[in-house]
Amino acid sequence: MIDDYWYKNATIYSLDLETFMDGNGDGVGDFRGLSARLDYLQGLGVDVIWLAPFQPTPNRDNGYDISDYYGVDHRHGTPGDFAEFMDLANDRGIKVIIDLVINHTSDQHPWFQEARKGKDNPYHDWYVWSDKKPSDAEDGIIFPGVQERTWTYDRKAQQYYFHRFYEFQPDLNVSNPAVREELHRVIGYYLALGVAGFRVDAVPFVLETQGPGKLDEAEIRFEILEDLRRFLQWHRGDAILLGEANVAPRQAKKYFGEGGGGLHMMFNFYVNQFLFHALASEDTTALREALEDTRTDLPMAQWGNFLRNHDELDLGRLTEEQRQQVFAHFGPEKDMQLYDRGIRRRLAPMLGERPRIELAYSLMFSLPGTPVMRYGDELGMGDDLSLNERDAVRTPMQWSDEANGGFSRAAEKQLVHPVIGDGAYAYPLLNVENQMRDADSLLNWTKKIVRLRKETPEIGYGEWELIETKEPAVLGLRYTFRGKVVVVFHNFSNRPIVVTLKKGPEAEANLLDLREVIELEPGEKGGHQVRLGSYGYRWFRLRKV
Ligand code: GLC
Known about the structure:
The protein is α/β, with parallel strands linked by helices and 545 residues long. It is 28% helix and 17% strand.
């Protein structure tokens, strides 16, 4: 029953409605536009769409500031458009997961507006307050350089309220049973509309105990996660929680839930950082350790592997030296860096050459876990550093060489974000329509790797081991599932390398190349010499001889 854990052999595609496709010509992407592009996504071969927040919002944090959980922001269409989209996606066998932003609401949410009215208001305890300015009001900042504090005075309430993120995002008090009940209702509502699960925003911050002076010794209340999971699974047996939890590897087990009561999936932020370190240093030693450190044997647990997402590339878990190495290679200018820890660039401009982009993508598709793509990376889209903070990586999808890259019929100045119109990544050259018709395009290459990953269930479901190659620049992985074995090699350096395989099952078997009509036979004394080009990558299935 390998279909049981469907998320283990799926490819997830993340997109923000706002910048994907504008169906009504007002300059902002919407459900009608997205629905019209479902054929494209089906053709690409993705199994799951992860939709960024689309609910009503003042939109001061890319929609992560929700002012009504039960609606669709008017810029994106109507609840009817959403239901229609769900139907059309499900018709094509595409599952939809949506963001569940429950750490905070927008300060414009009616709950907060009520809460501000004072201690007697029933909504007051839906948020976290303090009469005096807490001693740690300037600590625990998530967006250094932009955010100044975590407690802000509200004149109406005459109290300070807690906000882990920007000050317009007051934290919900999830200790309050009334809040928990409402969050259940939110989950139930979207399950009833057919979503297959949730990308849970900011998990550690949802679970931490809150209050004045608590930041330092905040405890993580896993019972809250168990409660959400119980509710979810009772209502839909195969729905999943994919958590955004950039935590230390030793914490991961708890978030996955040892008794099976936590997140089904978590983004592997840890491996992501070491992956970029390996790309920068051409040395996979630290990446291998990171993979071992994040090994998990819980049956339902699965990592989500990604290269880039809608935020900065967070390098906060590297050593200072490692981080500087990555900055030097991929974000040397101050303008490319963000929050003292990350890089606000897209994948293609960072990696530059096509072989290196392929290497990175091939790796993402073959690491232990499930691949999560980011819209536009299948084309090698660029970034716009003239935009604020993380908006640099949130420019509209480039569909064609028509005005606004085919994203919208609106006047250029009405667009939600400018389309990239100049330089090497400009839409007149770099767009879906061109790449569809070019057999060698990155888009067509990506389609093949998506399919290959699907046809290699050993990766998503199997046991994995590192293969010792004696070459620091090479990462070798072996997957075993139901008697089948797949081995994958990636060469992070720009010089060709031949690896010698003397031990392990691969030394005795024929190696069937999964991307070329080549079958390697073991030498007379057994073993193989596997040739990897500069930034080369090869996937093999073992064939017994
Ligand atoms: C998550 C989102 C990020 C957002 C933050 C606050 O980290 O990925 O985009 O700003 O939560 O909701």
